[in-house]
Automatic annotation (TrEMBL):
Name under which the protein is recorded: Ubiquitin carboxyl-terminal hydrolase
Keywords in alphabetical order: Hydrolase, Protease, Thiol protease, Ubl conjugation pathway
InterPro entries: MINDY, MINDY_domain
GO cellular component: cell periphery; cytosol
Start and end residues of each stretch annotated as Disordered: 236-256
Coiled-coil region(s): none
Ranges annotated as biased composition (Low complexity): 239-256
Domain MINDY deubiquitinase: 1-173
Catalytic activity as recorded in UniProt: Thiol-dependent hydrolysis of ester, thioester, amide, peptide and isopeptide bonds formed by the C-terminal Gly of ubiquitin (a 76-residue protein attached to proteins as an intracellular targeting signal)
Known role: Hydrolase that can specifically remove 'Lys-48'-linked conjugated ubiquitin from proteins. Has exodeubiquitinase activity and has a preference for long polyubiquitin chains. May play a regulatory role at the level of protein turnover.
Gene Ontology molecular function: cysteine-type carboxypeptidase activity; cysteine-type deubiquitinase activity; histone deubiquitinase activity; K48-linked deubiquitinase activity; K48-linked polyubiquitin modification-dependent protein binding
An example Gene Ontology biological process: protein K48-linked deubiquitination
Keyword Nucleotidyltransferase listed: no
Length: 256
């Protein structure tokens, strides 16, 4: 069943997977079908959006909520006649606003401690999945922004603060600043637009109907199943590119 569930969501890899963090641990996520892919492939998935356990009022306000649950709680608390609940909702909302980068210093410390030396894993932040590793006690993220397409020597970026201004390194983790920072900056702005397109596509994709595995005949051969999956993948790919063109038109209107 897990294999079937994983195959049913593999097509989402082209637009993005939807995972829901919890604020109590760097490997704590609400269990969703998207998490099955990481479990089956034995790929560690981390995030760094944690509540500092020493800040009691935030710990109480956030509790064991996932991100989605916390948003719902904030809305509910705001509508309450109970002043204590209203205050708790305000504290929770302030936490989300103050940690909009989705990485806290407590989370960064926990990440550095949890990730093993030389481990290859996935880091989730701001709806992005990044390849992460640890070298000589320092965390590094694989550089994939469009602005670095011509920067062949730039491979990794250090993750040592919550603001995102890490140091760029080559494949051997030697410092390697970009040769043309202005080109990199423009490419990063293009990447923002691409991310916006991806977010729109993901939102639309979630509204599409998933494969109904119950309708697949029993005893179907692997070859026949592969053909059916490929046909479904081709259909979704065609639909995705059509939606991307429509979203690109929206971006052009938004930025003009």
């Amino acid at each position: 069943q897990n294999m079937s569930d994983a195959m049913a969501i593999l097509h989402k890899l082209q637009t993005g997977l939807d995972v829901n963090v919890k604020f109590t641990g760097v490997r704590v996520f609400e269990y969703t079908p998207e998490c099955i892919v990481f479990d089956l492939l034995d790929i560690p998935l981390y995030h760094g959006w944690l509540v500092d356990p020493q800040v009691a009022d935030i710990v109480k306000a956030v509790g064991n909520c996932s991100y989605n649950q916390l948003v719902e709680k904030i809305i509910s608390c705001k509508q309450s006649d109970n002043s204590e609940l209203v205050s708790e909702g305000f504290v929770a909302e302030q936490f989300l606003n103050n940690t909009a980068t989705q990485l806290t210093y407590h989370g960064l410390c926990e990440l550095t401690s949890a990730v093993q030396e030389g481990e290859l894993c996935v880091f989730f932040r701001n709806n992005h999945f990044s390849t992460m590793t640890k070298y000589k006690g320092q965390l590094y993220l694989l550089v994939t922004d469009q602005g670095f397409l011509t920067e062949e020597k730039v491979v990794w970026e250090s993750l040592h603060n919550v603001d995102g201004d890490g140091n760029f390194c080559d494949s051997e983790f030697h410092l390697r600043p970009p040769s043309d920072p202005e080109t990199v900056y423009r490419g990063q702005q293009d990447q923002i637009d691409q991310d916006y397109l991806m977010a729109l596509s993901l939102q639309q994709e979630q509204q599409n109907q998933e494969i109904n595995w119950e309708q697949i005949p029993e005893g179907i051969s692997d070859l026949e199943l592969a053909k059916k999956l490929q046909e479904e993948e081709d259909r979704r790919a065609s639909q995705y590119y059509q939606e991307q063109e429509q979203a690109a038109a929206q971006v052009q209107v938004r930025t003009s």
